[in-house]
Amino acid sequence: MKRVLNQLPDLGYLNLGGAEEVFYQLTPAQLVQAALKRNEGSLADSGALAIDTGKFTGRSPKDRFIVEDDVTRNTVWWGDVNIKFDPAKFDTLYNKMTAYLSGRPFFVRDACACANEKYHLDVRVITETAYQNLFVHHLFIRPEVVDAKSKPEWTVIAAPGFMADPAIDGTRQENFSIINFSRKMILVGGTGYTGEIKKGIFSVLNFILPHDKKVLSMHCSANVGPEGDTAVFFGLSGTGKTTLSADPQRNLIGDDEHGWSDYSIFNFEGGCYAKCVNLTAESEPQIFNAIRFGSLLENINFYKGTSRVNFADVEKTENTRVSYPLNYINNAVIPSIGASPKNIFFLTADAFGILPPISKLTPEQAMYYFISGYTAKVAGTEHGVVHPEATFSACFGKAFLPLHPITYARLLGHKIKEHDVNVWLVNTGWTGGAFGTGKRMRLKYTRAMITAALNGQLDNVHFEPHHIFNVNIPLSCPHVPDNILNPRKTWANPDEYDERASELAALFVKNFEQYAKYSTAEILNAGPAVTISV
Ligand code: ATP
Ligand code: MN
User: Could you give the CA distance from residue 122 to residue 104 in angstroms, rounded to a whole number?
Assistant: First the structure.
């Protein structure tokens, strides 16, 4: 090794002897400098570092594997979410990756996951680029002291420039993300998308916590009110977890990954990873103001000839992102722990415009909608016509769940009953018609509905059941026009609404068939009322 910046970490347990330069535990400023020097990106006028992640601007779920071994063989829910990988192939790939890194400079960072000390997981992340290491600084919890000489429990190696050879290495294509529970190691190659690193460790925790420790792990954001009441927001990508948890009236616990142990919930992470598309200071002030020196912007464009970010520009991707440490949000809770939640919100971005903007769920309905994990994407077709597409992702995060979804659902069901939690279904998606006809629910109304639910202002209003989905819709809500609360009334043609609503209900029923044998009659009956004609 020719040059080491700061201390030399113990890499003896890895095959990384011949490295040119090793940069250990650099500060954000040093990482920003390194990134600029290496031409990884440039500074925006706000001081944030802007980089491009390359070919991949999102995760690649089809290239995410788990090594089949004694730990995973009979525990993991194998299939197209958790794809099997051969242990010998992993070892070969590992040797190739470490040989690749040994010939060049790399960055090492010791960090940890889980704000609750009882569940701390020490993680060492080795990255080929400086920007990835900055991301790790932000998204993982920053330990006060690190011991360079110690061997951490888990190791992640992420090298965007390393390409697998699918024919030899057993991958699907050049890029991959592989979790090995026996070796406690994650290999990420061929992709520079930072989200792969955080979602890798999330998947690990989604195995360890429920399986070994009986702690529920959740794909959700969380915040806490002035009275100490915690709220949790589940939802798939783009449904509003990050946006809605950033609430100036409440303190932020975290925006994406949490655990729920006996009496408290805790963040797995030390920072946020927010979508930037169409971001404005007016509608999302906290996130906007977090974009400053140290923050990492991904795949944005500047206004021509300037270093001012054009948040409306989606030329590289719709999934433009910014990451920053939790303390960049001024009312963050650190360490990020809160009491068991009083309210749980299931967020869905229903592009069909069918589900009510807010409704209250019974405990059985909560189980049904949690297991269903519905949202709708807006997808393009070959003719350039854009139409909505239903997505069902169990527990609002199937892609990150190594165990069968019912494991998580049962844990949640017990906790909802034990803590007498209010559960709400919130549609942050379309109103007045499907995508194309209607429009997205205004953020200020969604925020008002959530505030009303949290402040108990919906406790004494009248509710009416939805005629197909059975969920209970409030007839009024402070600061929200009454006529948008029932979606049927927002459509130009209510008969068409009924028709489309029945179609969506049929999709729910069809999707739920695979979970029927794990469910009770009460949960099955809590789904939409629908007669499917064959
Ligand atoms: P991920 O899991 O990918 O991090 P997320 O659930 O955190 O996704 P957000 O980053 O909060 O999703 O994205 C929600 C996006 O939708 C934001 O760009 C936000 O501005 C936009 N949006 C528009 N209308 C609403 C609404 N009514 N409620 C919530 N978000 C809305
Ligand atoms: Mn988010």
Answer: 25
Nearest to 216 by CA among 226, 208, 228, 227: 208
**Full domain range(s) for residue 440:** 216-260+340-525
Average pLDDT over residues 20-24: 86
Beta partners for residue 425, in sequence order: 346, 359
Strands 64-67 and 83-85: parallel
E strands, 247-314, in order:
251-254, 257-260, 264-267, 271-275, 296-298
- In this structure, the answer to whether residues 161 and 308 fall within a common structural domain is no
Tokens 């990756």 found at: 97
Task: Answer yes or no: is 240 a known binding residue.
Answer: yes
Residue 44 falls inside a structural domain: no
Is the CB of 443 inside a 6 Å radius of any atom of ligand 1?
A: yes
For the Cβ of 377 lying below 6 angstroms from any atom of ligand 1, the answer is: no
Co-location of 185 and 289 in the same domain: no
Query: Are residues 91 and 226 located together in one domain of the fold?
Result: no
- Please return the burial class of 404, using the count of CB atoms within 10 Å of its CB with bins 0-12, 13-18 and 19+: middle
Same domain, 253 and 281: no
pLDDT at 19 over 60: yes
Ligand 1 pocket, 446 CB below 6 A? yes
The angle at the Cα of 386, spanning 432 to 191, to the nearest 5 degrees, equals 120
Whether 235 and 374 map to the same domain: the answer is: yes
Is residue 273 within 8 Å of residue 255, measured between CB atoms?
Answer: yes
Q: Which two tokens stand for residue 214?
A: 């009986």
One domain, residues 35 and 20: yes
The DSSP 8-state label assigned to residue 254 in this structure reads E
Measured CA to CA, the distance from residue 435 to residue 317 in angstroms comes to 20
**CA gap 471, 365 in Å, rounded:** 8
Ligand nearest to the CA of 393: 1
Beta bridge partners of 346: 234, 425
Verify that 350 and 442 share a domain, yes or no: yes
Q: How far is the CA of 522 from the centre of ligand 1 (A)?
A: 32
Q: Is 345 exposed, middle or buried (0-12, 13-18, 19+ CB in 10 A)?
A: buried
Q: Are 126 and 229 within one domain?
A: no
pLDDT in tens, 91-128: 999 999 999 998 899 999 999 999 999 999 999 999 99
Kindly list the catalytic residues: 59, 199, 219, 237, 241-242, 256, 321
pTM over 0.85: yes
4 assigned to some structural domain: no
Residue nearest (by alpha carbon) to ligand 1 atom 1: 237
